[in-house]
């Protein structure tokens, strides 16, 4: 089924900007460009991105057809996800507005006291992570990163005002990698592979590089 849809996609590219349509959902060349940008690896990511988009839309419609989205279980998950996301955003906002300075010795003492609580109970990942306030900068950073390495890309963008935040070799627990779209992308990356540009919030575009899973 996906193969047939992809054939249709290639035919539609000659007609206009619309790449594939499933009912009222439309994927355009502009959408693809925003997500994966340009560069030598664009063709490789393009087919993968289209396949993922089609799979997501087909499964979503099948779920609606079978009443999954009306089930109490689904509604409960959505409600909980909204609460967790809202809480995470609130905490992030508070910490940015009220930075806390903690001495290294305090951290060591705390770890020694509660060592057992630091045993990992869920998947965790070491990532390089950077976000921008516009997609153009994010795509350009991604292109440079793919063609060189993380430190060189950061050096090129060292004075760039569009950077919102950046983290090098940072540990992320599974629940911290949000939204679901970015979480799914990260989990499918290979070592040192770079994600597509992902809009995680309105006006916030993320590029992540997978280093390892813990």
A few lines on this structure:
The chain is of the alpha+beta class. Helices cover 50% and strands 20% of the residues.
Characteristics:
about 210 residues, alpha+beta, Chitinase A, domain 3, four-stranded antiparallel β-sheet, two-stranded antiparallel ribbon, 8 helices
Radius of gyration: 20 Å
Mean pLDDT: 84
Order of helices and strands: HEEHHHHEHHEHEE
Head-to-tail CA distance between termini: 36 Å
Shape verdict? globular
The CATH architecture of the largest domain comes to Roll
Strand order in space, largest sheet: 4-3-6-5
Which structural class should the secondary elements be placed in? alpha+beta
Strand content: 15-25%
- Total beta-strand segments: 6
Main sheet characteristics: 4 strands, antiparallel
The CATH topology assignment of the largest domain is Chitinase A, domain 3
Helix content class: 40-55%
By DSSP (H or I, 4+ residues per run), the number of helices equals 8
CATH class label of the largest domain: Alpha Beta
| Uncertain parts | 7-16
What count of domains describes the coordinates? 3
Structure, explained:
This protein has 214 residues and is α+β, with helices and mostly antiparallel strands. The protein has 3 domains: 2-65, no CATH class; 71-97; 122-213, Chitinase A, domain 3 (Roll). It contains 8 helices and 6 strands, in the order αββααααβααβαββ. The strands form 2 sheets. Strands 4-3-6-5 form a 4-stranded antiparallel beta sheet. The chain has a two-stranded antiparallel sheet with strand order 1-2. A hairpin with a 2-residue loop joins strand 5 (198-201) and strand 6. Helix 6 (135-147) crosses helix 7. The longest helix has 26 residues, at 72-97. Residues 7-16 have low confidence and may be disordered.
